[in-house]
Design a protein that fits this description.
Layout lengths: L2 H4 L3 E2 L2 E2 L1 E5 L4 H12 L3 E6 L2 H15 L3 E5 L5 H11 L12 E4 L14 H31 L6 E6 L13 H21 L4 E6 L10 H5 L10 H13 L4 E2 L3 H12 L2 H11 L1
Parallel strand pairs: 3-4, 3-6, 4-5, 6-7, 7-8, 8-9
Antiparallel strand pairs: 1-2
Helix pairs in contact: 2-3, 2-8, 4-5, 5-6
Bound molecules: NADPH dihydro-nicotinamide-adenine-dinucleotide phosphate and ligand LPIYNW4C.
């Protein structure tokens, strides 16, 4: 099946619109590129406005889709509120309603918990968790109302979580891993709540991906098989979302790793994790 059929970017000629957070780099930029390629209009969100503007111009020219940018810090209430206002557009004014919200922006601060700066811990939770909850809480009622009004559009949310939340322990990634575990449980739960209204909520759990976030492990020489290409993360999650699936783990190596984590005794996982610190 072609990608265009998997995730249609138009409905009877009307362009679909996706809002992508963390679109200035890494996996979020890849979502922006792949969604524009599929014909989606875009709203791009991140702090670095100059990168968003350049990407908007490039994608607008390449694919002829409308691209808006919102340069904000999603770790702040004001930043989140600006994006919330855009997400609540319901098609009654000149703003296109958001068919797909991609909660991708995140930060991955690590290290021993006792060494982490309490303000930085708050900042990570504000971005990785609170922003995601507020943005999703803003868009879902609009999407549910659209479906109830017989709008046949494919609508919903994709949240980029991580396999870092799946092991029973994650020394060196305690807060980051817990923030992702939170997202996975929350997203799966909301998915079950809204499913009957025709809205799809999907969580994607990548392993390692070559982006700025993983420069450290890239420099330390993590083997090639440990990395899943960005475009596979995006492709697999869009396919899962289009198929109405609540959960996807891209990459056969990480599907296997997740299966193993679920059957290995917890004590053994703890011992292995301690050895890796
Ligand atoms: N790379 C990996 O191996 C994995 C990544 N993930 C998850 O994927 C997602 C994307 O990560 P990745 O692409 O690797 O990371 P990058 O560091 O490459 O990109 C992060 C993106 O988030 C944006 N961002 C960061 N802080 C803020 C903020 N306060 N407000 C708004 N935007 C912000 C950045 O833009 P700007 O700086 O312009 O604000 C950038 O666009 C994250 O949620 C991460 O946890 C999950 C598993 C594995
Ligand atoms: N951010 C990634 C690791 O650094 C992950 O979530 O696995």
């Amino acid at each position: 099946m072609s990608e265009a059929v998997d995730t249609p970017g138009t409905d009877r000629g009307r362009p679909r619109t996706a809002l992508v957070t963390g679109a200035s780099a890494g996996i979020g930029e890849e979502y922006a590129r792949r969604l524009a390629q599929r014909g989606y209009g875009l709203v791009l969100v991140a702090r670095r406005g100059e990168l968003l503007t350049a990407l908007a111009e490039e994608l607008g020219e390449l694919y002829g889709v409308p691209v808006e940018t919102i340069a904000v810090d999603l770790g702040t209430r004001e930043g989140v509120d600006r994006v919330v206002r855009r997400l609540t557009a319901d098609g009654t004014d000149d703003r296109a309603p958001i068919d797909l919200l991609v909660n991708n922006a995140g930060r991955g601060d690590g290290g021993p918990f006792v060494d982490q700066d309490p303000d930085e811990i708050d900042a990570m939770l504000d971005l990785n968790v609170r922003a995601v909850l507020h943005l999703t809480r803003a868009v879902l009622p609009v999407q549910i109302a659209r479906r109830a009004a017989d709008d046949k559009a494919k609508v919903g949310v994709i949240t980029v979580s991580s396999l870092a939340g799946e092991p029973v322990v994650n020394p060196g990634g305690s807060v980051y891993g817990a923030s992702k575990k939170f997202l996975t449980l929350w997203s799966e739960s909301v998915s079950a709540e809204v499913r009957s209204s025709g809205v799809t909520v999907t969580v994607v759990l990548p392993g390692f991906v070559r982006t700025d976030m993983t420069l450290g492990v890239q420099e330390r020489g993590l083997p090639e098989f440990a990395f899943v290409p960005k475009d596979h993360i995006v492709r697999d999650s869009l396919r899962a979302w289009a198929a109405g699936r609540p959960h996807v783990i891209p990459g056969p190596q990480y599907k296997t790793a997740d299966g193993l984590l679920k059957v290995l005794p917890r004590t053994l996982v703890r011992v292995l994790a301690r050895r890796m610190v």
